[in-house]
Amino acid sequence: MPLTKTFGLFRTRPRLTAAVGIAFLALAATIAAPRLLGPKIVVVTATQGELLQSVVASGKVRSPQRVDLASQISGRVTQVAVREGQNVAAGDLLIQLDDAEWQASVAQAAASLVQSETRLAQMRQLAQPLAEQAQLQADANLAQARRNFERTRDLAAKGFFSKNQLDDAQRNLDVAESQYKSTQLQLRSNQAGGSDYRLAAAAVDQARASLALARSKLDYTRMTAPVAGTVLTRLVEPGHTAQPGKILMTLSPAGETELLVQIDEKNLGLLKLGQKAQASADAYPDRRFAAEINFISPAVDPLRGSVEVRLRVPEPPDYLRQEMTVSIDIETARHANALTVPADTVRDAGGRQPWVLVVRDGSLQRQEVDLGARSDGRIEIRRGLAAGEQIVPASQPAPPPGSRVRAIAG
Questions:
Q1: What is the model's pLDDT at position 21?
Q2: Which of 187, 257, 238, 230 shows the shortest CA–CA distance to 88?
Q3: pLDDT of residue 295
Q4: How do residues 147-191 score in pLDDT, each as one tens digit?
Q5: Number of domains observed in the structure of the chain
Q6: Which residue range(s) make up the domain with 234?
Q7: Same domain, 172 and 186
Q8: Mean pLDDT of all residues in 227-244
């Protein structure tokens, strides 16, 4: 081997040795690092910003009240004047029943009233004056009979008249007195407040009541809208026979629209009257409208574990329909500068003392925290953490608190 080549080989060996040493040190560092610095672990960061807490639920569009229309009488339906979805004003005709029989009843009752009123008028104009004249005549006859009796009695005492003549005079006086009392009774009976007068007046009242009843029954054949609103259901057609109490039509009165929703009782503590909400119909998911809680039921449904909540819709969109399904986001809290972490980083979130695993100075620490509002998978931390701190998700396997770890952003 030439001397020059041998010399070059000796120069190369120190470099190779240095490279091998560096590689050995790197390998040793790789092996020793987990023991010295701990294993790598995925973490997330606590951030600060606006937090909007809401309760999401699904419900139905309902009017505050409904009016079920049913017939008061039996009858054949001759006309149905409206259709489902039609808006009606108060007093508009909805359903017409056959009214021929009730028209005849009204005419008969009206004739009876005329007859009774005529009888009462006859008593005032004829019977009462006749009774008065009869009493005057009876009074005159009684006076004449009394004078005749007194003269006959005096003459009989002197022997001019017989006992029979005195008895005839007494009989005539008794008859005159009886006739006088009869005319008095007749006059009192025919005067206002008398029995005959009261009977005639009662007959008039009875006839008027019968006419009112007949007209009421006639009105039952014409079913009109009690209030302005929208026809929801129409369950009758011309030719059908209406039965008393059977619902023929349902009307939704005009007024504020409500959203009816059942909310899990666990969220009851978050709800308050007046809270704002955003809603959208499932048929129009891109068109949202405002709503506001105006009723929270005082009772919880024991079967479903839910509470009924109603929301007022101040300006309902024109596409809303009764019984539409709607999705509702009820805003229960809004914090402008809240410290939040992902919900899956909080352990024992439903217990008495929630806590998190936080990485501080390269080691794991158990940190108790106070929780606040929750929204969209995040939880507000009121105490225990600072913005920027790194927390280990509960789903991430981790060594016990106090262990050295190397944080890796998740």
A1: 53
A2: 230
A3: 92
A4: 887 888 887 787 777 888 878 878 887 887 778 777 776 766 666
A5: 4
A6: 67-97+226-252
A7: yes
A8: 91
SS3 content of the chain, % helix, strand, coil (to 5): 40, 35, 25
Cα dihedral 367/369/374/377 (nearest 10): 0
Q: Report phi then psi at 177, rounded to 5.
A: -65, -40
Indicate the pTM of the whole model: 0.48
Query: Whole-angstrom Cα distance, residue 307 to residue 55?
Result: 13
Contact 51, 229 (CB under 8 A): no
Q: In whole angstroms, give the CA distance from residue 309 to residue 306.
A: 9
In the block, residue with structure tokens 């981790």: 398
In tens, the pLDDT along 43-64 reads 899 998 888 888 888 999 987 6
260 and 301 co-located in one domain: yes
Does 171 share its domain with 189? yes
Measured in degrees and rounded to the nearest 5, phi and psi for residue 89 equal -100, 160
Does residue 318 carry a pLDDT above 90?
A: no
Q: Which of 39, 38, 46, 37 is nearest to 391 (CA)?
A: 46
Token pair in block for residue 71: 């017939």
Beta-bridge mates of residue 276: 292
At 80 the pLDDT is 95
- 341 pairs with which residues across the strands? 379
Question: In what order do the strands lie in the sheet containing 363-368?
Answer: 363-368, 355-360, 390-392, 40-45, 406-409
- Tokens standing for residue 358: 């936080």
Q: Of 336, 370, 396, which residue constitutes the final position of a domain?
A: 336
Query: pLDDT tens digits for 378-406?
Result: 889 999 999 989 999 988 888 888 889 98
CA 112 – CA 352 distance, rounded (Å): 84
- Report the distance separating Cα 79 and Cα 240, nearest Å: 10
Confirm whether 28 is domain-assigned. Answer: no
| Residue among 248, 238, 284, 212 nearest 78 (CA) | 238
Encode pLDDT of 137-150 as tens digits. Answer: 877 777 887 888 78
395 and 347 in a single domain? The answer is: yes
Task: Determine the distance from the C-alpha atom of residue 188 to the mean position of all C-alpha atoms in its chain, rounded to a whole number.
Answer: 61
| The token pair that represents 66 in the structure block | 């409904």
The last residue of a domain, from among 295, 316, 336: 336
Q: Is the pLDDT of residue 197 over 90?
A: no
What pLDDT sits at residue 91? 92
Q: Are residues 183 and 119 in the same domain?
A: yes
Axis-axis angle for helices 163-190, 128-158 (nearest 10): 160
Does the pLDDT of residue 35 top 70, yes or no? Answer: no
| Same domain for 155 and 120 | yes
Of 285, 274, 277, give the one whose Cα is nearest residue 326: 285
